[in-house]
Amino acid sequence: MKMDVLLGLQWGDEGKGKIVDVLTPEYLNVARFQGGPNAGHTLEFNGQKHVLHLIPSGIFNQDTTNIIGNGVVLDPVVFTQEVHKLIKAGVDVFEKLVISRKVHLILPTHRVLDAAQEKAKGNLKIGSTLRGIGPAYTDKVARQGLRIGDIESDNFKEKYEILRNIHLASLEGIKVELNMEEVERLWFEGIELLKRFQFIDGEYFVNQAMDKGESILAEGAQGTLLDIDFGSYPFVTSSNTVCAGACTGLGVAPGRIGEIYGIFKAYCTRVGSGPFPTELDDDIGQLLRDQGQEYGSTTGRPRRCGWLDLVALKYTVMLNGVTKLIMTKADVFTDIESIKVASSYVVNGELTDQFPFDSIASCQPVYTELPGWKIDISDLRSKDQLPRELSSYIRFIEKFIGVPITIVSVGPDREATILM
Ligand code: GDP
Ligand code: IMO
Ligand code: MG
C-alpha cells in the first residue's frame, strides 16, 4: 500500500481540515508531517465547528488512527487545550492518537524568541503566528532541540533547563514580559498529559502499516507558497510544506507515495506579510473576505484576499507532483459578475509564466476574465447541478494546469462537497 498526501497549494487555509475530514473514512491512518500550532484546520459537521492545530483532522472518525509525525513541532500547552476540547466533544483521543518520539517540542521560551525576533525585524516582519515555530525548527537544525522521546529519559528536566538557559542567554538585554514560573507550570502539566499517549517510532509505525496493507493519508499544514525553500522567502514558515516534506516528516520513501491531492481556493488568500501579486485592495477583496469569512483560524487576523493566481498554482502543482486537484470556496463568488485569474506575469517589463525569484513584489499579473455564476451554489451536491459558468471555470483551470479537479467544495460543512 502507498501513502496518499493532501497539501495546500497556496498560502495556507485552503480548506485542508475540511477535506481531510471528508476523505478520512477511506483511510485507516491520518498523519501530520510538518508544521505545528501555527496551523488552524477547521472541520464542520452536525452543526458543530472544530478547529485543530496539532492533531490530525482524521480524529473524528471512529476507525482512524491519527499520527503526529516526526516533522511536526509540538507545544504541550496548545496540545493540552486541544485534547481537552476533543474529550469534551466525546472523542476518545487517548485511544486514537499516537505521537512520534522524534517530534520536537516547543518550549515557552521559543514563543518569546519568536516575538523578540519579529519585533526586531520592524517593517520586514513576517507576520508570524508567534507560536514559536521558527525558533523550534531553528533548534532542531542547530541540533539542540528537545524531543518527545526525551520525555522518557531520566534527565528530561535537566535537558529542558539547558535549552531554556540557552534561550534566556540569547534574550539578555531584551525586555521580556513573562511569568516564567506560571508558563513552566503549564508546560510541565502538558508534558504529564503527553505521557498518557502512546509514543511511537513513527517511521516503523507508518511503514509497517503500509506493509500490512493499511491506507494512510498524510495531511499537510500551511501551503506550498509558505514552504521554507520554495515559498516567498523570507515571508514563509520554517518547514517543507511540499510533498517531499511528507517523506522526511514521516519517514516514508518517495516511491511509496501514491495520490497527491493538491487543494486550492477558487481565489487566493494570505495572512501575514509578504508578496501577493493578485491581492485586491478594493470592494471585491472586501467582499471575498466577508463572504468567505476570511479571518485566521489560529490568530483571528483578517486574511488578505485576491484573484486566483494560475502562475503560482502551476508552480506549486509542479513542485508537489499533484495528481488530483481539489477546489474549495467556489460558493464565495456568488455575487461577482466577472472573475479574473492571473495567467501570466510581467516582471521587469517582460512577460513570463514562471514564478520569479525575488521580484514577485513588483510583478504585475496579466489577467484572463471569465464570467461569474451569480447564483448561490452552496446547496448543490452533484456535478450535474453546477452552473454552466462554474463548469467553464473548472475546465479553464484544468486545461491551464493539466491536472483534473476531482472535488469541488461549496461550503464549510462536510456535506457541502461535490465529487467530480
Ligand atoms: P485549512 O488551514 O486549510 O484547514 O483551512 P482553514 O480551516 O484555516 O480555513 C478554511 C475556512 O474555510 C474554514 O473556516 C472552513 O470552514 C471554510 N471552508 C472550507 N471549505 C469551504 C468551502 O468550500 N466554502 C466555504 N464557504 N467555506 C469553506
Ligand atoms: P494552515 O495549516 C495560513 C503564515 C503566518 C506567517 C508565516 C510564518 O492553517 O493552513 P509562522 O507562525 O510559521 O512563523 O508564520 O506563515 N502561516 C499560515 N498562514 N495558514 C497557516 O496554516 C499558516 N501557518 C503559518 O501567517 O505569514
Ligand atoms: Mg488554517
Polypeptide structure, described:
With 420 residues, the protein is an alpha/beta fold. It is 30% helix and 21% strand. The chain is built from twelve helices and 20 strands. It has helices at residues 16-23, 76-88, 93-96, 108-121, 133-141, 156-170, 180-194, 202-211, 244-248, 283-291, 310-320, 388-401; strands at 3-8, 29-32, 41-45, 48-52, 65-68, 73-74, 97-100, 104-105, 198-200, 216-219, 257-265, 268-270, 304-306, 308-309, 324-328, 338-347, 350-352, 364-371, 405-409, 417-419. Strands 9-7-5-2-10-1-11-15-19-20 form a ten-stranded mixed β-sheet, with helices on both faces. Strand 3 (41-45) and strand 4 (48-52) form a beta hairpin. Helix 4 packs across helix 5 (133-141). The radius of gyration is 21 Å and the shape is globular. The model has no long low-confidence stretch (mean pLDDT 96).
Which short descriptors sum up this protein?
21% strand; binds magnesium ion; 20 strands; alpha/beta
List the helices and strands and how they pair.
Layout: E1 3-8, H1 16-23, E2 29-32, E3 41-45, E4 48-52, E5 65-68, E6 73-74, H2 76-88, H3 93-96, E7 97-100, E8 104-105, H4 108-121, H5 133-141, H6 156-170, H7 180-194, E9 198-200, H8 202-211, E10 216-219, H9 244-248, E11 257-265, E12 268-270, H10 283-291, E13 304-306, E14 308-309, H11 310-320, E15 324-328, E16 338-347, E17 350-352, E18 364-371, H12 388-401, E19 405-409, E20 417-419
Parallel strand pairs: 1-10, 1-11, 2-5, 2-10, 5-7, 6-8, 7-9, 11-15, 14-16, 15-19
Antiparallel strand pairs: 3-4, 12-13, 16-17, 16-18, 19-20
Helix pairs in contact: 2-7, 4-5
The protein binds guanosine-5'-diphosphate, 6-O-phosphoryl inosine monophosphate and magnesium ion.
